[in-house]
Design brief:
The structure holds two protein chains of two kinds. By secondary structure, chain A is of the alpha+beta class. Chain A has helices spanning 44-52, 94-104, 109-122, 138-150, 168-185, 196-202, 220-225, 230-235, 268-276, 297-302, and strands at residues 4-11, 21-28, 33-37, 59-64, 67-68, 79-83, 156-160, 188-193, 205-210, 213-218, 242-251, 254-259, 262-265, 283-288, 293-294, 307-317, 321-327, 334-339, 349-354, 360-362. In chain A, a hairpin with a 3-residue loop joins β16 and β17 (321-327). Chain B folds into three domains: 3-80, no CATH class; 93-267, Alpha-Beta Plaits (2-Layer Sandwich), CATH 3.30.70; 274-361, PucR C-terminal helix-turn-helix domain (Arc Repressor Mutant, subunit A). In chain B, a hairpin with a 2-residue loop joins β2 (41-44) and β3. Classes of the chains: A alpha+beta, B alpha+beta. At the A-B interface, β5 and α2 of A face α1, α5, α6, α7 and α11 of B.
Chain lengths: 373, 363
């Protein structure tokens, strides 16, 4: 087992004037499950491919364990990869698919057999060992691809969107399976996904990327509760965080946030930071998670300084919870996530209270979270 | 000694290792012999130096920043002496024959004789009458060392079957001929024969498997092209020409794609044959807003849209975006260019513009 370290890693393709990955610095601990997440084209797959040895590193150093592996061939890096297009070897049966890598590395037959059968048992595909890939379902193929990686007993697993070819139900199931498996194998895993739910549920730590830069690397809780900038705040969480542009003003010794349809008091702890950083009288973007808008009478009663009134434009009832798309607050639509049994309906006016202790304040120019930086 | 080997040596020695050039007199001052040979080693205050290459008055040496035991010196010197590594290529009979065949293919291509049949003088000829699937592999790995014929052949035999030929062509380029029985092997036992319509799909899956095997288990990233089964004696040269062109077009027009299919690059082949001036005039006339295609999001969206046969739902699924987001993007493109990719004629124009733009942009 080993950790992975990237030191000032850059990737620039010939003929391109912009780097695809810029100054990537990260220390991935041994046995850590690290998730690289970001929108399409953010450089997450390129980073993974550099770790795999499938892309050359333009600048910087890559360590697996204590060894610099910039110029080491993929097969000699002691890694195993599972990609989105898990190309099983179509002319081999499941057993042969899983055994092939070991056979090529000249493992003894009994050792190959032991590893393949053990991995098949772990993945519950023992009954499929004689089948050809064509006779397998998507989920089964995915498990074979995982099995092919597991039998190698590598120092590091690399996975690039391994679940994206599966349907929603199977994805959820496989997500849990992979998490369990990695915990059991106690191997370092670097996992790429565009899906923030996957990232939040699987990763010990998440790296959010955009335009080739690391935006933030932190635990799921840290990312959710303390996003460093507007991008991370908007990317993590579904429905996404509401952003309301407005003004911070000082009135009667307290700081208030004012926008169309909103006039709420900022708690003293946060107000103190905003005063010290000179944001009073300036335009800011306030971020509110949908679940931090409350319609419960008890909460409204207890929060007289953070009440807002809005009209429900659309109401989506998911049974256990309800999404309210609200009109008349700031310039953008605001979404509230409330209890599914609230009985609220479209077109109705609603009184809500914002949990001001949980708001985030962003600088419109730098897009940084003023309260976190 | 390549970079990887130097790094390995650095790890084994536990000290910095670098390559330097010194003069003959410096070598002698350090205690080296008057006639240095590769692998000779002397000790200096800052560590050991080993001769890697003797070229006139200059010596290319490997400097190891630590003292070595006599046994370590002897072993290192032995490992560096010529002839101690793998036997040079061209030693086995099979390899010699394959190389000759490769040279003949190259010569025929250079002479423009793409319809040439494998001449009787080749011993291999008798084994080239059966139906075979041609694969062309072009390695992209930036490693100093090209895999040896014997090693690669062994790996491919394990992967495909013993009924295969490996023919080295140009540097880092190999033709692999696998028995067409592979097509039947891909099928599940309950299915009897491969339907003709499925052959291309099966060939693609075999090429993808070969690519994955080569990339992960062998020599790193590569491009693979696969053709329909052939009788090699009759059309070997023509097949190599087609597959080589396929990889060329695939690399040029579809960056990031590693497996290329001749039947998927018809339009690219046609566009590639249009004179530069004509292409430029077309682009000038069509591209009222050249900046539209500089947006990576637009290019990604259109690529996916065409790959999914202009199916909005499937494209949205592939791009992990909501259907309405995709429709918004397509409407925006229509507003900016006047071209609606949901209509067939405009889709054809945009597809051609996109292909041409990607090529001109990379110039």
């Amino acid at each position: 087992m080993a950790g992975v370290r990237l030191e000032h890693v850059y990737k620039k393709y010939p003929g391109s004037d912009k780097a695809s990955v810029t100054d990537f610095n990260l220390d991935i601990q041994d046995k850590e499950f690290l998730v690289l997440v970001g929108p399409s084209g953010c450089g997450k797959s390129t980073t993974l491919r550099m770790i795999a040895g499938l892309e050359e590193i333009t600048e910087g150093k890559l360590y697996i364990g204590d060894r610099v592996v910039n110029d080491v061939a993929p097969k000699d890096r002691d890694i195993a990869m599972v990609f989105q297009s898990y190309a099983l070897y179509p002319h081999m049966n499941v057993y042969q698919n899983m055994a092939f890598g070991l056979k090529l590395r000249k493992f003894r037959k009994d050792e190959i057999d032991r590893r393949v059968r053990e991995a098949a048992r772990t993945l519950e595909i023992e009954h499929l060992l004689d089948r050809k890939p064509k006779a397998l379902s998507g989920g089964q193929r995915q498990r074979v691809a995982l099995g092919r990686a597991i039998v190698r007993e590598p120092q590091v697993f690399l996975m690039d969107e391994p679940l994206s070819n599966l349907d929603a139900k199977l994805r959820t199931q496989m997500r849990a399976n992979i998490s369990k498996l990695m915990k059991r194998l106690e191997t370092t895993c670097i996992y790429v996904t565009h899906d923030q739910t996957e990232a939040m549920t699987m990763g010990d730590r998440i790296v959010v990327m955009k335009d080739g830069f690391i935006q933030q690397a932190a635990t799921p809780e840290e990312l959710y509760n303390h996003p460093i900038n507007l991008f991370v705040a908007g990317f993590i969480g579904a429905p996404a965080m509401n952003f309301i542009t407005g003004q911070l003003v000082e009135e009667n010794g307290s700081v208030r946030f004012k926008a169309t349809g909103i006039n709420v008091e900022v708690p003293e702890g946060k107000a103190k930071v905003l005063r010290s950083k000179g944001y009073i009288g300036r335009e800011v973007i306030v971020g509110v998670r949908p679940e931090d808008l409350h319609e419960e009478p008890v909460f409204i009663e207890a929060s007289p300084n953070s009440i807002i009134n809005a009209n429900i434009e659309v109401c989506e009832n998911l049974g256990h919870e309800m999404y309210l798309y609200l009109n008349g607050l700031g310039k953008e639509n605001v979404i509230a996530r409330i209890d599914g049994r609230s009985g609220l309906q479209e077109g109705q006016n609603v009184k809500l209270a914002i949990d001001m202790n949980k708001i985030h304040v962003f600088d419109p120019e730098t897009e940084l979270n003023v309260l976190e930086n | 000694m390549n970079k990887a080997k130097l790094q390995r040596l650095e790890q084994l020695a536990g000290a910095p290792v670098d390559v330097r050039v010194i003069s003959q007199s410096e070598w002698e001052q350090a205690g080296g012999s008057k006639h240095p040979e590769i692998g000779d080693c002397v000790e200096r205050a800052d560590g050991c130096i080993l001769v890697a290459q003797a070229d006139g008055d200059d010596l290319k040496i490997i400097h190891i920043g630590t003292r070595l035991t006599p046994l370590e010196k002897e072993l290192l010197g032995w490992a560096m002496k010529p002839g101690q590594s793998r036997p040079p290529s061209g030693t086995s009979d099979a390899e010699r024959q394959a190389r000759k065949l490769g040279e003949w293919i190259e010569a025929s291509l250079a002479a423009g004789d793409s319809r040439a049949e494998v001449p009787d003088r080749f011993e291999l000829r008798n084994r080239l009458f059966d139906g075979m699937i041609p694969f062309l592999i072009l390695s992209e790995q930036a490693d100093d060392r090209e895999p040896s014929y014997a090693e690669l052949e062994k790996a491919l035999r394990s992967f495909i079957s013993d009924e295969m030929f490996l023919v080295p062509l140009r540097e880092r380029e190999w033709l692999v001929l696998g028995s067409d029985r592979l097509l039947a092997e891909v099928d599940a036992p309950e299915e009897d024969v491969v339907e003709k319509d499925e052959t291309k799909e099966v060939l693609y899956s075999l090429a993808t498997g070969l690519h994955q095997m080569f990339a992960e288990e062998w020599g790193g990233e590569c491009h693979v092209a696969v053709g329909m089964p052939i009788i090699p004696t009759e059309s070997l040269v023509e097949t190599v020409a087609t597959l080589r062109e396929t990889i060329y077009l695939g690399r040029r027009f579809h960056v990031g794609v590693q497996v290329h299919l001749p039947w998927m690059v018809h339009l690219e082949r046609l566009l590639s044959g249009i004179p530069e001036a004509t292409r430029s005039r077309f682009m000038e006339e069509m591209m009222g807003r050249p900046d539209v295609f500089t947006e990576p999001e637009t290019i990604t969206t259109l690529d996916a849209f065409f790959a999914m046969d202009c199916n909005v739902s499937e494209t949205a699924k592939r791009l992990f975006i909501h259907r309405n987001t995709l429709l918004y993007r397509l409407d925006k493109l229509k507003q900016e260019t006047g071209l609606d990719v949901r209509s067939f004629n405009d889709a054809v124009l945009v597809r051609i513009m996109l292909l041409l733009y990607k090529v001109t942009k990379r110039k």
